[in-house]
Task: structure prediction
Amino acid sequence: MLFEKDIVISKVALAMFVPPGSAKKNHPDRPNSGFAFYEAGESRYVFAGGKALNVRAGEAIFLPEGSFYRVEPSSGVCYAINFETAEPLSAAPQIIKPRNKAGALRLFKSAAAVWREKKPGYKYKCASLLYEFLSGLKAEEALGYENSRQALIIAPGVDAIHREYAGGMTVAKAAEKCGVSPEYFRALFKKEFGVSPLKYIDRLRLERASELLREGMCTVSDAAELSGFSDVSSFSRAFRRFFGVSPAEARKKKSF
Result:
C-alpha cells in the first residue's frame, strides 16, 4: 500500500523532463515529496542507512520529503513531479509498478509540458494530473492486480458498481457486465475485496449519504433517495449500524 490514507496535495512544486545524466546526484535533505517515472533505462537510488532501490523503465519511484539519498550514474530517462502535502506522509521510499504504464507515462509527460508552457492555471492542471496518477494506483491496488486474472474478470462489474451504485445497481447487473453468473461474480468479488458485493454497494451508498448529510445539502429522505436506498426506514437502520448514529443526528453533528 502506497499511502495509509488519501493525501491532499497543497502545492505542486515542479514537473519536468529529466534527461539522462542531468539529474542532481546527491540529495542530502529532500525539500518535498515526489515521483519520478522512468520512460527508459534505469537508475539506482541509495538511501541513508544503505537501503537501495533500482527503478526501471515503466516504473516510478516515490521519494518522501526529508529523505537522504544519492542517484548512482545511470542511463535513466524520466519525468518528475515534486509536490507538497497538507499533512506529512508516512510512506517510505518505494518502487511503484503501475499496470497501465502507457497511461502513467502520458500523465507525467503532460504534466512536464503543462509546467513548461506555464499557461494560466498550470499549477492546478499539474495537480489534477498528479491526482489522476494517484487515482489510477488506488484503483489498481483495490482490484488486487497481483491476482490479475480474476481481477480482470470482475473489473467491468466493479466499474459499473462505482458508476451506478446509487441508481439501482444489483449483483446480477454487475455480473452481467462481466458475462458471468451472479454466483461466480460473488465468489471472485469476495476473494478480491474481502466482503460481498452487496455489502460493498451498501458501503458506497452509506458513505455517499454521510457526505450529503455532513454538508447539510439534503434532508434525511433526500440523502436516502440520492444514495440509492428504496426507503428511509431501511436507510436509517443501515446508517446507524454503520456509523453508530442516526442520519438525523449525523446531519446535526456534521462530524462523526
Observations:
- The chain is about 45% helix and 20% strand.
- The chain has a mean pLDDT of 89.
